[in-house]
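[job 0412] stage=fold_complex status=start
inputs:
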Amino acid sequence: MGLPGVRENRRMPDPAAHRSDPSLLEALRTTRAIRRYTDEAIVDEDLATIMFSATRAPTGSNRQGFRFLVLKDGPRAVQAKAVLGESFRAGWAEKRAGDGYDSGSGVEDNSPKARTARTMQHFVDHFEETPVVVLACIRTRHGGLMDGASIYPACQNLLLAARALGYGGVLTGWHAFVEDELRAICGIPADYDIAATIPLGAPQGNHGPVRRRPLDELVFDDAWDATAEWIIEPAGSQHTGSF
Amino acid sequence: MGLPGVRENRRMPDPAAHRSDPSLLEALRTTRAIRRYTDEAIVDEDLATIMFSATRAPTGSNRQGFRFLVLKDGPRAVQAKAVLGESFRAGWAEKRAGDGYDSGSGVEDNSPKARTARTMQHFVDHFEETPVVVLACIRTRHGGLMDGASIYPACQNLLLAARALGYGGVLTGWHAFVEDELRAICGIPADYDIAATIPLGAPQGNHGPVRRRPLDELVFDDAWDATAEWIIEPAGSQHTGSF
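[job 0412] stage=fold_complex status=done
writing structure:
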C-alpha cells in the first residue's frame, strides 16, 4: 500500500516464545497497559483466540450488542489508523500541556511523569505502526453509563487474553475526536457507539504488578468511606498518590 | 439483626475445596453469570483477594475514580439488600411479563427460557440471602458511556477473581430504580454513580462454556459486517440465536 509509517512486512514471531497463559489470579494482578510494541505481527490464530475470549464476556440479558471491528493492514484499516494517529497525537498534545508534563517533575528525566511522557509520545508518534487496532462498539440502548456494562467487560477479557498469548494493549478513548470520520471509513452504523479503541501488539517491556491507590481508599465495607477491616494489601504493593 | 430472610450464621466453607485458579484463557471462556448460591459464606481472605484483583483493572489515565462498597451483614448492608431485593423482584416481574417468559417456549418446562425464568425467580426471591453484594461506583466525569471504561473492566476482574476462588456472581443493573434510597442508606456522594450491583456467593451449579452468537456476527475485519476470515469458532461451541 506504500503509505508512510505503515509496516508491510511484519516479522512473524515464534508463538511458542510468547505464550505464558498465567494463572487467572496472577494475570489479574499483573496485566499492564502496554503502549510500546515490537515489530512482531499478531499471529492470526492468536487474534482469533483473543477475539473469541472477548466475546465470552457478559452483556446485559446476554443481548450481545457488542461488535468488534479489527483493523489490521487492509485498505480501510490503513485509513482508519492514519485518522486515529492524528487524533491520538492531538489528544496527547492537549493532555501534555494541560496536565503539566512539561513542567515540575515532568522535566526531571527519571520521574514517573517524565517516563510516562516519553512512553505516550512514542505511542502516539508510532500509532500507525500498531499491528492491530480494535474498535470496540456497542449498540446504543440507554445512551449512558450502563450501556458500558455490555462492552467494557469484553474489552477487559480482550486485554487479558492478549496478555495470555504474549501480547498487550491498552483501552483508549481518543477516537472521540474523529468518530464521524471513522464511521464513514469503516461503515459503522449510527445505532452503534465506539466505546473504546484498543491497540494491540507484542510488548516492548513486560507485564507486571500495577500501581494503585492504597486499597482502603478504594474499597469500603457497609458504608461509604468506612474501612473494610478485612482487606489485605499484599506485601510490596506500590501505590500511586491519593488525592 | 433478626430481619427476615437474612442468614446470620452462614456455614464457613473449606477454602481448599473451592479453589481452582484455572489458566487465564480457560477462565475467560468459562466464567458464567452465577445467580444461585449455596449457604456458604465468602471467606474474608478470599473477599480481600477478589477486591484487590478488581482494583488492579485499568481506569482512564489511571485516575482510579472507582469505589467498591461491599455489603455483607452489617446494619446498612441489611437495609440496602432489602431495598435491592424489592427492586430486583420488581425488575424481574416487569421483564418476565415484557419478554414473554410466561408464554410460548417460556411455559415449556425444559426450554432455555423456562430454565432462565426459574433461575431468575429464585435469584430475586432470595436476593436478601446473597452472601455479599458489591456496589461498584464511579466518579462522574463525562456522564456518559465512556465513564464506564473506568469501572466495568474492574467489575469483570472482580467476577473473574471470584471464579478463581470458587465463587461466582453476576453484573446487574436493577439498582437503578432505588438509587436514591441506596445513596441515603450507604452515604454514597452525589458525584459518584452506581455503575453495577454485583451479588457474589458460592455457586449452586458450575462454571463452564458460555453460549454466544456465532463469532462472525460479532467480529469484523477491516469494515463493518465484513467477515474476519481468520476467526476460529472452537469445536463444540454452542450458540444463542442471532437476530
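[job 0412] summary: Residues 1-6 of chain B have pLDDT under 50 and may be disordered.
[job 0412] exit 0
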